[in-house]
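<instruction>
Derive C-alpha cells from the sequence
<data>
Labelled lines for chain and fold
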Amino acid sequence: MAGASVRACNTTLNPIIKIRGLGKQYRIGKRRVSRTLREAAMDSIIAPMRYSRSLLRPKAEGANYGEKHDTIWALRDLSLDVGEGEVLGVIGRNGGGKSTLLKVMSRITEPTTGRVDLHGRVGSLLEVGTGFHPELTGRENIFLSGAILGMRRNEIERKFDEIVAFAEMDQFVDTPVKHYSSGMYVRLGFAVAAHLETEIILIDEVLAVGDAAFQKKCLGKVGDVARQGRTVLYISHNMASVESVCDSCIYLIGGRLEEAGKPRDVIAKYMASQTRANPGTISLAEHPGRRPGYKPHLQSLELRSGAKTAVGAIRMGDPLTIMMSFEAAIPLRPIAGVTIKTIQGMPVCSVNDRFSMQLRDCKIVSRGTVVCEIDKLMLMPGQYSIDVSFGDFGPELDVISDAISFDVLPAELLGNGRLPPSNQGPMFCAGTWKLLEDRDRL
C-alpha cells in the first residue's frame, strides 16, 4: 500500500497535506559519553582495541549487527494525501510509526528520506502540555503557544475567553502550569490547539488522560473543527472514537502504510490482524502472573466465541467460553473462578462456581478441563484481561493474575446503526425509554 492516497476516500477535497516517500531512521543503542578527563583518556586508549576486535568479527556478524542493531526505520516509504477539512485517523500497534509521523509533520524531527508539504499552520497536541513553559501561567502559555503558531496578539485575545471556558480553567488560568495536574494540562493543551486558528491540527492519543466527560467534549470539538474546514490527524487506540469522528483512516505497520480507506474497513483489517497476533490461548504452567506459594495446577487457558477455535477478540454481545485445563497430583472435585478486568486493572465482573455450585456433583478427577460459558459478553469496546482461580471445594490451589488478555470489538446492538463509545464505562446496558406526560405520571 506504499504510495496510497487517502484522497481516494473523498476526491472532492483539496490536498492540504502531501507526503511523498517519507522515511525516518533512528540510531538505537546507548552512546557512551565521556564525562571526565580520565574517562576520555581511557576511551582513547580502548578505542583502537575495540576497532581491532571488530575487524576480527565474521563479516556476516558485522553486517547483521550494523543492519539490525544500530538503526531502525520508524517510517519507511510513506506517501499519502490528506484533504482540506478531512479528519484522518491513524491507527496501528505501538511502534508502528504513528507518533513519529506526527513529530515529522510538526517539524519536531527531520525526515531521513522524502518530504512533507503542509499548506497551512500546524497546531500540535502530541504530549501532555506540549510547548508549555512550566514557570509561566496558563494565561501566559496561551499567548506563548499562539505566538509560536504565528498568531497575532489580537487573534489570541479574540479566542482567549473561549479557550479558558472550554478548558474549564477559570480559577487556575493565572497559576503557573507546573502546578497543574496531568488532566489540567490536557484540557488547556487541547483547548489551545483546537481554538487557535490553525489550518491543521495533530492529536496524538493524549485525550485518553482526560476524564470521560472531557473526552466526549473534545471529540465533539474535533467534529466542529472539521466542519470549519480545518484538517485533523487523530491518533488513537480507541477504535470506536476513530470510527465516530474520522472521515478516513490509515493503518501503519512497522512504519509502512498497510491500508488506507474508510474507517470501518481499515479498522476491520486492523482488528483482524490483532486477532491473529493474539491467538486466544496460552500456557499457564509457568505463567509469570501466578501468585507466590501456589502450585501450577492450571496448565493452559483458551478463549472461544461460538466456534471450536481459539480467538483473541470477541464482538460485543457474542458468547465467550473460557476453557481451563488442569492437572493435580491428588484427585479432586474441581472448582474455578474467573474475574474480567479492564486493561487498567479495574474488576468488571466475576463468575465463580463457589457461588453457583454447579460442579459440586461432578466426578473426582486428577486432570481435565473446566469450562465457563457466558451467553452474551456485554462489555464496551476495549481491551480486557482475565484473572483465574482453581481449587477443590476446600481451599484455592492455584491463582493467576492477568492470565490472558483479549479485545472486545464494537458492534451495533440496538438496530440503529450507531456504535457505542468505549469511554463510557466497561459495561453495556440496553435500556427502554419512554415519555410520560403529567397526566400519565405513574
Summary: Confidence is low (pLDDT under 50) at residues 1-12, 59-68. Residues 34 and 40 are 5 Å apart (CA to CA).
